[in-house]
Amino acid sequence: MKISIDIDDPAPPFAQLITQVKAAVQSGRLRPGQPLPSIRQLANDLALNLKTVAKAYRLLERDAVIQTRGYRGSFVHMDAVANCSVDLSERAHERLQETIAELRAEGVTDSEIRNAFNRSMNGSSAK
């Protein structure tokens, strides 16, 4: 698996890594059951922070593109090809855009939307 990180790319390194792993799965360069480099090895190879690679692996695992088998390592998920088309981040973005448009149509200001979003993310119900 050939992965490269472009520091001039506006996409963060973890997102570049996710995109490249998904592309490799979709093209057949990575096949179901195939082992992936360890987080430590990939971070070393790409000169990235361990946490950056770990975040990418966590999100790929959440999306069932890869699976981690404890100390045996990470592998391409058996349903990875089908799961590569699922983009929860994009789905969240689209849903938020729809909600923001609805709130603006009701006359809620952007400042009020930001405050409500921050309260919601922080688990606070007070104004």
Automatic annotation (TrEMBL):
> What CDD domains does the record point to?
WHTH_GntR
| Keyword line | DNA-binding, Transcription, Transcription regulation
Provide the HTH gntR-type domain boundaries: 11-79
* Matches recorded under PROSITE patterns: HTH_GNTR
Entry superkingdom = Bacteria
Would the keyword Acyltransferase be found if you checked this record's keyword annotation?
no
**Alphabetized Pfam families for the sequence:** GntR
Mind telling me what this protein is named?
GntR family transcriptional regulator
Taxonomic placement: Bacteria, Pseudomonadati, Pseudomonadota, Gammaproteobacteria, Steroidobacterales
